[in-house]
């Protein structure tokens, strides 16, 4: 999974079977999962180590064997907790998996309220209750079925996802609508700002431009942006540019100054400073490490 993407453009699975699996391992000195969102739902289970995941504006510390559920369109990110590497498996699936393609009473009754967030389910899934234990066991079975790829493993995966959806709904309840509408409106504006950064990162972007795009005052925009992302707008934008630069250093032999200019930095020394803060080494050292591994 390309962790640099914020609004993921990739399709997870295919229209007939919209399910994909991703295994990620990350050292303690690197970001585990950059801020992003997608239209699909996601179940993510930590398989080694521990991590802190931010979903919407809440942080969840996960130990090995625990999971999070991420609803469609929800911003989420993650960082390794502690000094040990962390691994996780993500199951990403589209809600169309639960629809028959025609008028589907069960989809409208159960899945639609979940997707429009008029019905809330827990994000952090521990092994504390019988339903949570059953859900996590089903998730383990899904991951195992995908690895083994036996005959009709897709049926096992789809059937278990139906059971997981049922258990999730039993663990949840109706949302507080007024609060949800307010948060949704602000989050939509924030996501539009992130899309603006994605589309214009190689051009000069001012704080005033970003605040104007969000239709907020600069002071309120900065406070809200940091509340959601834990970074200031400028810190976030530079982090995104540095991540893109790292991708280009891995995938091309372009000169470092050329890479810096391509992702929006006009000062090589400033680019080097931010890159070292993010990856613990200079861009040149980073490229040498990648080439050494190859």
From TrEMBL:
Keywords on record: DNA-binding, Transcription, Transcription regulation
SUPFAM superfamilies: Homeodomain-like, Regulatory protein AraC
Domain of life: Bacteria
Domain HTH araC/xylS-type: 191-289
InterPro entries: AraC-bd, Homeodomain-like_sf, HTH-like, HTH_AraC, HTH_AraC-typ_CS, RmlC-like_jellyroll, Tscrpt_reg_AraC-type_HTH
Keyword Transcription belongs to the record: yes
Name the UniProt record assigns to this protein: AraC-type DNA-binding protein
Protein species of origin: Paenibacillus catalpae
Lineage: Bacteria, Bacillati, Bacillota, Bacilli, Bacillales
